[in-house]
Amino acid sequence: MNRKLFLKNATILTGASILPVSSVFAQNVQNNGLDKLTDDNGNFIQSALPYNDNFLEPFMDQETTHLHYTFHHGGAVKAANKDLAMIRKSMDENNLETVDYWTKKLSYHFSSHVLHSIFWTNLTNKKTNPEGQLLKDIEKDFGSYDKLKAYIAATSKNVDGAGWGILGYQPYSKKLTIMQCENHEKLTQWGVVPLLVIDVWEHAYYLKYKNKRNDFVDALFNIINWDNVAERLNTAKKLA
Fold it and tell me: Are 23 and 236 in contact (CB under 8 A)?
């Protein structure tokens, strides 16, 4: 394997705490629009939003969407590129004394890039509900959609500090699972494929909802794109 290919693969592998390389997201990195995380040289890129800043009104306000996407998600992409550049520099100079620091920073920023990229596609401007095989799997693994909704809502609302609530697919057990992720990368289940992510960092809701995280999480269920979740689940099952 040449150095260029190694570095490109390493950027994907750094997110192993979130998802395996064979997962739906790794597949989408290669093929799809918003899920394309890197360019051909392995540098991180941020794709355009699939809708206008005001598309998610009134449940997510235009200013929050703009700031969130541009400065928080965009900032993570820029920081991840810096982290990667510093790792490359350390490797080129055969000086690995600081590589542990930059590897940890890359894990943090890259995981933010992954989760935000999923987050934008998980949202739409109309109310949808799980249908078809997704609904069947939800009923099998959680009992009902209402029980799943209550479970992931409570998990998201109760994140200590900043983080995410995540609905994922476990390829090894062939089941849906709920996880609570602190920051962008802590308390995750290795190998789980994220299907639906709920961002509960304050920057996701503070302008409109102030300190009322619970109200924001409840409002999100009006704009969750369950068709996108179903598509991700279908792809995950094919790759498992």
Answer: yes
Return the SS3 of 228.
helix
**The domain boundary residue, chosen from 121, 144, 163:** 121
91 and 137, same domain (yes or no): no
| Cα–Cα dist 194/176, whole Å | 10
How wide is the angle at C-alpha 186 spanned by C-alphas 184 and 188, nearest 5°?
Answer: 100
Sheet holding 163-170, edge to edge: 175-182, 163-170, 193-199
E strand map for the chain: 163-170, 175-182, 193-199
pTM of the model: 0.86
Residue for token digits 């999100």? Answer: 220
Among 73, 101, 121, the domain boundary falls at 121
Q: Are residues 76 and 114 in the same domain?
A: yes
Write out the DSSP string of 134-149: HHHHHHHHHSSHHHHH
Instruction: Return d(Cα 130, Cα 169) in angstroms, integer.
Output: 15
* pLDDT recorded at residue 42: 87
Distance CA 232, CA 164 (A): 18
Centre a 10 Å sphere on the Cβ of residue 153 and count the other Cβ atoms it contains. 17
Q: Provide the domain count of the chain.
A: 2
3-state SS class at 186: strand
pLDDT digits (tens, 9 = 90+) for 119-137: 999 999 999 999 999 999 9
Question: Binning pLDDT at 50, 70 and 90, where does residue 239 land?
Answer: confident
Query: Are both 229 and 204 inside the same structural domain?
Result: yes
Phi, psi of 165 (to 5 degrees): -100, 140
